[in-house]
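Technical annex, item 7. During the second reporting period the consortium partners agreed on a shared format for inverse folding records so that results from different sites could be compared directly. Each record opens with the tokenized structure and is followed by the designed sequence. A conforming record, contributed by the partner at site C, is shown below for reference.
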């Protein structure tokens, strides 16, 4: 039998990804990546702490990020991404910028974080009013609200799940239910937080239903990292990635937003 050697495989371009130790959605990240790009993942060291502000601080320490990025430099990625939302917003905008600086110094290459990519995506979509869905407790959700507000973006509504573990097991139907609960008439977009929350397939469905752009933690992370490389993420019918899917509904003035309950008070529904 004749065999033809084509000189492959095709040259690959690399994205280095630093993820928290409990990250379980490697396969979802790959769905946004074009064929010519490889993802090279490494994880932060395990710590016996549930999802919380304390965990967010632990997995985003500069020494931890430095060591993780150094493990990736041997394979020479073109950009490195820190794929953790809470870990990159817990220190506010100044803290997020400092993380990027620490990663860039460790690897001498461009760096992005999930929360930095979120603000970049909101600017790309010209969004000034956003609704939020999180799997977090109220204290972590409140920290996200504060981060977004610090960037000058108003939070029009919020729904959260109160989870501290096994977030990757949340089904799409629960994500969709929370999205419907969070979005009101004033929202210009919806952000679904947490890189451990599955979102790829639900984004187009929610955009069609809600008539606003829907962005998620893993989506914005991959979008921003690939943009640093001069290439595009793969996401048909996702407004951030596919301009043909974008809509621009007219929204009324922003109403007063109810405050989140104190920690420990369970959300209705």
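Designed sequence (site C submission):
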């Amino acid at each position: 039998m004749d065999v033809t050697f084509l000189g492959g495989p095709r040259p690959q371009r690399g994205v280095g990804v630093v993820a928290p130790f409990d990250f379980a959605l490697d396969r979802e990240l790959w769905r946004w990546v074009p064929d010519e790009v490889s993802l090279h993942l490494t994880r932060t060291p395990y710590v016996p702490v549930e999802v919380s502000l304390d965990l967010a601080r632990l997995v985003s320490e500069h020494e931890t990020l430095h060591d993780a990025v150094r493990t990736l430099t041997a394979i020479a990625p073109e950009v490195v991404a820190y794929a953790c939302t809470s870990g990159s917003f817990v220190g506010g905008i100044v803290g997020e910028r400092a993380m990027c600086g620490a990663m860039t110094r460790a690897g001498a290459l461009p760096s992005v974080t999930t929360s930095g990519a979120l603000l970049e995506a909101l600017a790309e979509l010209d969004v000034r009013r956003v609704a939020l869905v999180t799997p977090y407790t109220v204290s972590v959700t409140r920290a996200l609200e504060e981060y977004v507000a610090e960037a000058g973006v108003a939070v029009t509504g919020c729904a959260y799940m109160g989870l501290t573990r096994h977030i990757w097991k949340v089904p799409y139907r629960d994500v969709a239910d929370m999205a419907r609960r969070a979005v009101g008439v004033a929202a210009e977009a919806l952000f679904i937080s947490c890189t451990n929350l599955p979102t790829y397939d639900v984004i187009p469905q929610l955009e069609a239903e809600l008539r606003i752009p829907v962005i998620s933690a893993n989506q914005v992370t991959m979008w921003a990292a690939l943009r640093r490389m001069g290439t595009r993420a793969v996401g048909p019918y996702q407004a951030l990635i596919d301009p043909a899917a974008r809509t621009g509904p007219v929204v009324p003035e922003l109403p007063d937003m109810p405050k989140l309950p104190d920690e420990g008070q369970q959300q209705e529904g």
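The first strand starts at residue 13 and ends at 19. The mean pLDDT is 90. All partners now use this format for quarterly exchanges.
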